[in-house]
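User: Show me a protein chain along with its predicted structure.
Assistant: Here is one chain, sequence first, then structure tokens.
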Amino acid sequence: MHVTIQILSMNYYYIGLGNPGDEYVFTRHNAGQILLQTIAKTMGALRTTSIDTKKTRKDDIDFPGASVSFIYPGCYMNDSGGVVKRLRAPENMLVIVYDDIDIPFGEIRLSYNKSGGSHNGVLSIVKQLGTQKFITLRVGVSQKDSLGRMRRISGAGKVQEFVMKNFSHDELTHFEMLAQTAINTMKLLHTHGLEKTLSIYKTKKADAA
């Protein structure tokens, strides 16, 4: 894969997808927001502000060599695209952080120009921006069986039911470790750019095979 964009020492916008309301705060579908909130708590947000009339919140985070904003859309998942479009940010500065049922819990994946599949939040963003050429950070939410194999979920109804379930207490605690993994990934992205970071991840995957 050849990616020609270089995005160093600029303003990154990490958009954590999720649904508003107390009933959704700890659901698997809100994994993107949970991860960013955990990182903000770990690193310490410089300031928190509201940026539109839909209760969208922004945390400004001090990363070495980069200006970083965490965005938490105040709308429902299906309307995420409108919030992202109103940011008026270059697509290559956007990092969409969201839950992925095809990745086991405890893992994250960095990608570029990747289809969001049937994820309504990502589909909304693609529709509003007219492109999928942005960075994604996918947060695994699927569980493993007793043999350590990921449990596959099929059927729209079953998927919807699963992602609307709350994480367990142990899983929520694990987000602190996951946040450190994500911070390391972000530092790589900010200091080395997308192409180099993806190359590093590809090499790690090959070494682990």
